[in-house]
Amino acid sequence: MSATLEADLILTNGRITTLSEATPAASGAAMREGKFLAVGTDADVLQHKGVHTTVIDLGGRRVIPGLTDSHLHVIRGGLNYNMELRWDGVPSLADALRMLTEQARRTPAPQWVRVVGGWTEFQFVERRMPTLDEINAAAPETPVFILHLYDRALLNGAALRAVGYTKDTPDPPGGRIERDRAGNPTGMLIAKPNAMILYATLAKGPKLPFEDQVNSSRHFMRELNRLGVTSVVDAGGGFQNYPDDYAVIEHLAREGQMTLRIAYNLFTQRPGNELDDFKAWSKLVSPGDGNDMYRCNGAGEMLVFSAADFEDFLEPRPDLSPSLEGDLEPVIAFLSANRWPFRLHATYEESISRFLDVFEKVDRDVPFNGLRWFFDHAETVSRRNLDRIAALGGGIAIQHRMAYQGEYFIDRYGAEAARHAPPIRQMLATGIPVGGGTDATRVASYNPWMGLYWLVAGKTVGGTPLYGPGETLSREEALRLYTTGNAWFSGETGKKGSITPGQLADLVVLSDDFFTVPEERIKSLESVLTVLGGKVVHASGSFSGHNPPPLPFSPSWSPPASFGGYHNAAARSALARPATARSRNRGFDAGCDCFVI
């Protein structure tokens, strides 16, 4: 046998869903030099076994392509993961408060306990959020900051003292400090109409040193690997400036320590100076710069601040500034002229109509001509605007935000409107590229299986039905949005997303069969073997012998060191603290502003 055909890794005895038209199903896959070498029967792939080939028998488990999240704030999330107590998926408020109590005891001064998004009161059996009294009782001395979506934050007394909020502190523009009858802050911060108060307050807390941020980012990538994620399109974020806040991820890329493919977008940071931001960045980096593990993907999701249509479904739809068109047009013209792909946060039909007016005007003068661009979210987009998006060659990246805010949306707009928020079936019928994602880590959980559950079952995290049978997706349709569909959003169509010879060798062996488990069990799926570029980056259970060496947490008091990340009931007994483990969902109210997405 020719040495050039020898595989590095061969998997056999699997039930492989390839998402490839040529070979839809297979039992074996061979990988060499980061790509799939052969896919087919066990006999087909074992022809490529050589002296140095690792062969793994999958024992009949389901295999799917590696999952891609087309909208995750992974770079920013990685810097903070080791500092955050995640309530994502925790089943009861009692459990969540016990976790808070234990973490407060082990967190050294002057550090805070941060619960930063990804949870909802509807996930808890109590069906309610924590009170300020409960938070103060759980942590009387250690500062605690608890974020719900982009709507509000709860601070205990120690946190109020740490940030210096007193009776004399004025409300900042766009936010409100809730006060008691005497005028003293209660600990509730309310984002109205935007979330600057939440993130300005969060930014007052201590940061991790560089070495711990490196460790934190590696752990967050491993957590995503555990859930089957192999690629992410990073959507930038507020307080995530380039290049300063990318030093950690670029260090990991240089050192070959990334276990996740990241294509990143640059998110403007300075209101009124957005065009200057993109002009400056265009001198530092160009879309496509980098490699298959880490590279620039373009601009967004914030392009201009006047186009920030935050999604607080507890509040009326915001009316965007009259200056929007004048602010947005020169930015889009610059991006189009310089062939920068772009993405734009767009929740509401009314906003999308105005954005498209600008895009069409620019296209007449500076043609898009195949430039890759897309809207994020688009919960209430109309069929008319879907046709306009298609005519301009755009796409839509949807996220499972309705799984976390669906109850609020129904209360404001009604159940009938919720049935088409977003109108996924119409999007697909239009033929535009559609991809799936989470918008984690703050407005929803990073767990892709919650997104797949939402697409298939049509329910919120709390079990509220949103969509009828004709509006949900089949399991294969949903999976395609997280694999082959998402490859378009990073400009990698045909390069990844399916288990096909010649494509990047990213795949996931599942803990149970996605195609046959009851709908409710989709939420608890995870990976038992994750392969990235032909190398194992996560392995558990009977495959644990293939797992990469353990990575100690730093700092040692890190919440995920004791509780893990996303709540996993089966793994709870293996955690250092048995009271609880991993988390997921939202909280009390909703709200967001693209100032600090």
TrEMBL record:
Gene3D superfamilies found in the cross-reference section: 3.10.310.70, Metal-dependent hydrolases (3.20.20.140), Urease, subunit C, domain 1 (2.30.40.10)
CDD domains for this protein: YtcJ_like (cd01300)
Protein's recorded name: Exoenzymes regulatory protein AepA
InterPro entries: Amidohydro_3 (IPR013108), Metal-dep_hydrolase_composite (IPR011059), Metal_Hydrolase (IPR032466), YtcJ-like (IPR033932)
MF (Gene Ontology): hydrolase activity, acting on carbon-nitrogen (but not peptide) bonds
Stretches assigned to the Amidohydrolase domain: 55-538
Region Disordered, annotated ranges: 166-185
Cited PANTHER family: IMIDAZOLONEPROPIONASE, PERIPLASMIC PROTEIN
